[in-house]
Request: fold
Amino acid sequence: MSENINKVALVTGASSGIGRTCAIELAKDGFEVVVNYYPAPACEAEADEVVKEIENLGKKAIAIGCDVTDSKAVAEMIDRIVKDCGRIDVLVNNAGITRDGLLIRMSDEDWEKVVNTNFNSVFYVTKPVAKVMMKQRSGNIINMASITGVYGNAGQANYASTKAGVIGFTKTIAKELASRGITANAIAPGFIKTPMTEKLDTGKIEANIPLGRLGTPEDIADVVKFLSKPGLYITGQVIGVDGGLVI
Ligand code: NAP
Reply:
């Protein structure tokens, strides 16, 4: 029997891309999964499909619509999870967006939208979840960063700054929460095939990736599952999953 039976994982932004695959793979690993999605009808329909796919595997999942940039709505979501599922063992802070542009052309709106979605949300979600995990004296927090947060990327001052912030946040909470048996790690994906990257010229990108291909959401989910193990002896780390792009 899986060691994760009766354990609960929350994945934000799980209606598509990396979040969707992480939700399904964590369910296969035995977790009951909370599929968070942006509260819009199209995302709700996608999240319901993720739940159905998990249920078809004979596993448990619920979908909860919540805009992770709204701290009050997030607090309500976490209360509901604790009421309905009793605990939270794994948190994957995955929701994220891009609004690319060169610095001198970037609008305040594009800056703020990306900061709210990719960075402030990580604080809003992690704070109440950490309180739940502290009471349990266990838990694994996994934050989706990006190689841009380590190396920068022209045209992504907003995005890269949020991902660098996520890395600093991860290292700090790893230090604060370790004594309670809670780990916090970040994943820094390179180029992964998802709706976020579908408009990019992938031929050119692939030529620069030593392993010769873009990553898949499954490549990321494998690492998420690894970092979700109870008793994990790794914390405060940033794991690059980029096919060797930034060796
Ligand atoms: P994606 O398919 O666009 O998934 C992002 C998910 O986040 C979507 O389901 C999106 O919902 C959701 N979301 C956005 N704003 C939200 C909000 N306010 N509240 C709740 N959910 C929200 O992109 P992805 O490639 O899977 O990205 C997942 C994570 O990986 C992001 O943090 C991204 O920065 C990171 N990442 C991706 C790559 C890559 O190459 N793909 C590389 C490095 C890092 P909607 O459908 O409504 O937008």
